[in-house]
Design a protein that fits this description.
The chain is an alpha+beta fold. The protein has 2 domains: 16-98 and 162-325 and 363-473, Outer membrane efflux proteins (OEP) (Up-down Bundle); 102-151 and 326-359, Outer membrane efflux proteins (OEP) (Single Sheet). It has 11 helices and 6 strands. It has helices at 3-22, 54-57, 61-73, 75-97, 118-124, 156-222, 228-263, 295-298, 300-321, 366-433, 439-473, and strands spanning 101-111, 127-129, 132-133, 138-151, 326-337, 350-359. Strand 2 (127-129) and strand 3 (132-133) form a beta hairpin. The longest helix has 68 residues, at 366-433. It is elongated and about 135 Å long. This is Efflux transporter outer membrane subunit. Pfam families: OEP. It is a lipid-anchor.
């Protein structure tokens, strides 16, 4: 077989292998479904409370001070800020990968070879200059500038950099989402604390009322108009209410420390004015939710999922490019000599090199295929996560809007219940004094009144929490 035929076979084989290297598995394409209802309740009003900054949305100065402190000192938020820095450095690292690498290399070594070897015999007979033999042992000094560059033919490195950039932007959105949740959590905890303060005040007033009733029963017993059983029942009720006082005080301590943890400080008293809890100024008559489409821009978690989806698509392109041949170029220039006095002698000690290599995966590509299939699966997963995040955001807003409306109606009815039961306490006491009602009616009336007041405070707290949560659900607080 002649040389021409051999070269032809080699060329055909190389072409076939190149085509084999470029063959990639079929990708599963999936596009995110971004359709959402046109409105929440038929309204086309685009006014949205999410555009209001949290300093304006919350009016309580003590609450605003807590939020401001938490945004600076909360440990979880500060950890997230460091994750943003890590993601930013990852972008710089990926950008550097598709730029040429340039470095300086210097080295020195000393070699003694055997005289009765091919290299030693050759050195002994080779003169550096007429009449001068090669030194033995032979030193070697080198200084060289070297460059390496992978030519990004298939945009593998650039897409990797873009993917890292998307994840950096995603980490920023993650921080924004954490800010939104942190503000809402502090506000909810703060109103829970105010509710406990009001319940404690109710308990203390109820203890006073029950103590007065106990005194009346004791006097009636002395006058023979009441029994010892009635006295003991009233005493037990007083003891029960006093125990509630300490239960609430413990809950107050825990609520304060929850806020202290969010603010990033050790346990201490949380400044507040519990009397503002009953004000209706904060419960806005109309919460403007805007349009569902605005969630895509306002909700940081949706924006984060969007960036993750974009990054996952780029990861598929990066994994796909690994099937294709990669071109690398390397070059170097410098000086090399066996003696320092000859090191910079030009052109005798000058060295330079230029090389290029083309490499493609041909056999056993299982790792590349597995990486590609995993990247493709993660991209599909990111699509589902994006759709889930949008759906969850819409449902959260719808739930909170309905909750605000229903709690408003519930609060009105509970207020009437409290008024009725509060009046019944006086009525039952008067009837008891005139022996027209027994002591059990008085006790049950007091207990019902106490429970109704507790429930009214709970409803008020839920109202305030709903207004906080709708603000969070709409994506407010992070801007």
């Amino acid at each position: 077989m002649n040389k021409k035929r051999i070269y032809q076979y080699i060329g055909v084989t190389c072409i076939a292998l190149s085509f084999a290297a470029c063959k990639t598995p079929t990708a599963i394409e999936k596009t995110a479904n971004m359709e959402a209802p046109a409105s929440y309740n038929g309204s086309q009003d685009s006014t949205n409370v999410a555009s209001i900054e949290w300093e304006e949305y919350f009016s309580d100065p003590y609450l605003k001070a807590l939020i401001d402190s938490a945004l600076s000192n909360n440990q979880e938020l500060n950890i997230t800020l460091q994750e943003i820095n890590i993601a930013k450095n990852e972008v710089r690292a990926r950008k550097g990968e598709y730029l040429p690498f340039l470095g300086v290399r210097a080295g020195a070594d000393l070699e003694k070879v055997g005289r009765y070897t091919s290299q030693g015999a050759n050195d002994a007979t080779t003169d550096i200059k007429p009449g001068v033999e090669t030194p033995d042992p032979l030193g070697n000094l080198a200084i060289e500038a070297v460059a390496n560059w992978e030519v990004d033919i298939w945009k593998k490195l650039r897409n990797a950099k873009k993917s890292a950039l998307m994840r950096y932007l995603s980490s920023i959105e993650g921080k924004n989402f954490m800010v939104t949740n942190l503000i809402a959590e502090i506000a909810n905890s703060y109103y829970e604390l105010l509710a406990l303060d009001n319940q404690l005040a109710i308990v203390k007033r109820n203890i006073e009322i029950q103590s007065n009733a106990l005194g009346i029963v004791k006097m009636q017993k002395t006058a023979g108009r009441a029994t010892e059983l009635a006295v003991r029942k009233f005493e037990a009720e007083v003891f029960h209410t006093r125990s509630l006082q300490f239960d609430i005080q413990q809950k107050i301590v825990e609520a304060e420390n929850k806020i202290n943890f969010l603010v990033g400080r050790y346990p201490q008293h949380v400044e507040r004015d519990y009397e503002v809890f009953s004000n209706d100024d904060f419960i806005r008559e109309k919460i403007t939710s805007g349009l569902p489409a605005q969630l895509l821009a306002n909700r940081p978690d949706i924006r984060q999922a969007e960036k993750e989806l974009a990054a996952s698509k780029l990861d598929v392109q990066v994994a796909k490019a690994r099937f294709y041949p990669s071109l690398g170029i390397s070059a170097g220039v410098g000086y090399n000599a066996f003696n320092a006095k000859y090191l910079l002698t030009t052109p005798e000690s000058l060295i330079y090199s230029v090389a290029g290599d083309l490499m493609a995966p041909l056999i056993n590509r299982n790792e590349i295929k597995a990486t590609y299939n995993s990247a493709n699966a993660k991209q599909v997963q990111a699509v589902y996560n994006y759709e889930k995040t949008i759906l969850n955001a819409y449902i959260e807003v719808a739930n909170q809007m309905a909750k605000i409306d229903n709690l408003s109606k519930s609060y009105d009815l509970k207020s009437k219940e409290v008024d009725a039961l509060t009046s019944s306490i006086t009525i039952s006491n008067n009837l008891f004094k005139s022996a027209r009602a027994d002591y059990m009616e008085v006790l049950m009336t007091q207990r019902d009144a106490l429970e109704s007041k507790f429930e009214l405070v709970e409803t008020k707290m839920q109202q305030k929490n709903a207004v906080v949560n709708i603000y969070r659900a709409l994506g407010g607080g992070w801007k």
